[in-house]
Design brief:
- The two termini are about 45 Å apart.
- This protein is of the alpha/beta class.
- It is built from 13 helices and ten strands.
- Strands 1-6 form a two-stranded parallel sheet. A two-stranded antiparallel ribbon has the order 2-4.
- The chain folds into two domains: about 1-30, no CATH class; about 30-359, no CATH class.
- The protein is globular and about 65 Å long.
């Protein structure tokens, strides 16, 4: 794309797509923005709709074959982004951004057909719904939201299909709040989610990487303990083993969109993986979700790190910032202050005794 196209796409993607359609031209085409939470809920329903809820051995023939189909689908729709992955001789060394992008492209190509089928499934579902009205899109999305969650919750569960997939009333309330602000058109900003306590969210003094998510439901299928929804609502057995109730804040960062390596503050602070929304729902591992970067001190001998299980994060170039940890701490705290509506407050890092000074 031309620099102008890139700028327009970054600042207002919906208008950019509408302009390109008019250039073709295509007539009688309606463009709507599907909120991310709604897309992910459609994706969960699409994933569950093929399940057969019969134990192997009780039924034979067609039902048993369906169970085999389900098993193959589960194996296909799991994308492991751990620190060491299969190496393709046509790519650069593991740990480089080039490797990461090529690995992601390979995974995307494996499920390209599924992505198209999901998109078709969404379009058909919207067109077949008599309550879906483009003139009142907010009301229409609210109706669809309730219908999808009801469909998901009506699915029986087996040992293979756990209660994780049930959307409790508490989770539904959170997701409805997410829907309310994701309905707004994209105008050069994006949202990152985190469930945590500000009291523990620090990048310093030990170099620390904080995990975030592009969606409240990212990781929902295969990595629910890394799913933001898990950290702000109780209910998952693994989560409840360590904490009876969630006391974490529901954090929503609104940040400016940025290009890779564009020298912006956003790029300096954050790594956002180039992973399709369809795939993020089924990801597992360490490196599939956005996270804050490590400072340049990561290359110093004996530097201690936390927040990521990888051994030797200094070898992962896309997690290294061009700024030092003092600068990254200030950038992060400015995000926190903006979130709690203290944009006018300035943050400085007093290096002598390693303290944060809020002016």
């Amino acid at each position: 794309m031309s620099p102008t196209d890139k700028k327009e796409l970054l600042e207002h993607e919906l208008l950019f797509i509408q302009k390109k359609i008019l250039e073709v031209p295509l007539t009688d085409v309606n463009i709507i923005q599907i909120p991310r939470v709604l897309y992910d809920l459609f994706n969960i329903y699409y994933y569950l709709k093929d399940y057969s809820y019969y134990e192997v051995g009780l039924f034979y023939g067609r039902k048993r074959n369906l169970l085999q189909v389900v098993q193959e689908k589960e194996e296909l729709l799991k994308f492991n982004f751990f620190c060491v992955e299969h190496k393709n001789p046509n790519w650069n060394n593991i740990g480089t951004y080039d490797w990461y992008v090529n690995y992601t492209k390979d995974l995307y190509n494996r499920v390209f057909k599924n992505i198209n089928e999901l998109n078709t499934f969404i379009i058909v579902s919207l067109n077949s719904d008599s309550d879906f009205n483009l003139t009142n899109i907010t009301s229409a999305y609210d109706i669809i939201f309730n219908q999808i969650i009801n469909n998901i919750n009506e699915k029986p569960t087996t040992e293979r299909l756990s209660e994780t997939y049930k959307i409790s009333d508490e989770k539904k309330l959170v997701l409805r709040q997410v829907l309310d602000f994701e309905i707004q058109q994209s105008i050069g900003e994006t949202i990152l989610y985190r469930g945590a306590s500000f009291n523990y969210d620090m990048l310093y003094p030990k170099l620390h990487s904080l995990s975030l998510n592009n969606s409240m439901l990212s990781g929902f299928v295969h990595d629910f303990t890394a799913c933001t929804l898990n950290y702000i609502t109780p209910g998952h057995l693994k989560y409840k083993d360590g904490r009876a109730e969630s006391s974490n804040e529901k954090i929503k960062w609104i940040i400016k969109k940025f290009h890779y390596n564009d020298s912006s503050d956003e790029f300096s602070l954050l790594f956002i993986p180039p992973i399709h929304p369809f795939m993020q729902l089924y990801c597992d591992g360490e490196l599939w979700h956005p996270r804050t970067k490590f400072g340049i001190e990561i290359d110093s001998p004996g530097t201690r790190t936390s927040g990521i299980l990888c051994k030797g994060p200094e070898n992962i170039d896309y997690l290294k910032s061009t700024k030092n940890i003092n600068d990254l701490t200030i950038l992060y705290l400015n995000l926190v202050l903006k979130l709690i509506h203290l944009e006018h407050v300035q943050v400085a890092f007093y290096a002598k005794d390693q303290k944060i000074l809020i002016i």
